[in-house]
Write a structure and sequence with these properties.
Blueprint lengths: L1 H24 L7 H33 L3 E3 L8 H10 L3 E9 L8 E5 L5 E3 L3 E10 L2 E2 L8 H10 L1 H4 L3 E3 L4 E3 L8 E5 L5 E2 L3 E8 L6 E3 L8 H10 L4 E6 L10 E5 L5 E3 L4 E6 L8 E10 L6 E8 L5 E9 L2 E10 L3 E6 L2 E7 L5
Parallel strand pairs: 2-5, 7-11, 8-11, 13-16
Antiparallel strand pairs: 1-4, 3-5, 6-10, 9-11, 12-15, 14-16, 17-20, 18-19, 18-21, 21-22
Amino acid sequence: MAYGGSKDRFLEEPMKNFMAKLRSLLPRESDSPEHRYFKTVIFLALGTIVLMLLAGFVTFMVTIRGPEQTMVPNVVGNDLENALVSLQEKELYPHIQLRYSSTPADKGTVLEQDPNPGAIVKAKSKIVLRVSKGSIIERIDNYVGWNIEDLEIHLKSLVSVHGPMLSIKEPVQRIFNELSEGTIISQSPEPGTEITSQTALELVVSRGPQTGTILVRDYTDMPYIEAVESLIRQNIYFTVSARDADENEKAGIVVSQNPAPDSDVPRESLHQLVITRPEDIPEGHVFGILEKSLPNYSIPANITIDAVSPEGVRETRLELRHKGGLLSVPYLEPENTVLLILIEGTERIRFTVKKEE
């Protein structure tokens, strides 16, 4: 115990001396004005240095702490533009890597990301995005010998896999050939051609043997609407003219035709029908024959006739193939209806239905 007490006294004396010296450095009233001013300046300088050191320490601690943390969003499956916006909102920087994928429709889509969604990272971190640049190649199959209608169905079934990569170029070239009608004779690009972008198939299709004939059906006494629909279904070229019914004739039927019924004629022959005007036309409606001269086509063109009612309702009235020349079809529409003739999907002719003066 005696040793411990002597140790405390040994430490106590130096502390007293240090505190006494420290108090002597503080400004006192007994000091001269010059001495007090000097001490004040010294203590202000020391205080400023201490504050600067403290501020520097705080700044250093904030700096080594680094940016705030954030959660990585899930951008897999998004298109690149939306993915970049999502990362920007989180103050994250993208690092984009492009690669091919098995599906052309994935082009421009984020396939993978690193770090994974939900990971916690510091703001301003780099996020690796692996983005599809589309499929590396597609190969065109051999469609020679297919029926063109079967090919159209086949291509539609591939839309979900191939997107719009492959389509049929219109108009399709059709020529007389020994092969059955609708059979694909040749194609371009050739089978096996590698494609990496949208491609249109140019096809040459058989129209059947040129010497083919058909047996003319008897259309007399048939309602004109049924006769026109029958001719369209058979892809037979026709014209229609109308006159008033005689006393012994019915209204709204076919009264004569050329070629004559039950005759054998080439498939390309023009059928001419004469019909009688219908009776009991609804009030405000107009019956007439739409006659327009079309350019001659080397291969039949797809013709669509739409009707736009005065109220703005649009409906398709007829769809047929036509080789050009005179187009004549009957109509029964409300007055001021607009008839549109579309050739290969493009509007070419407008006709407003009016009562004859």
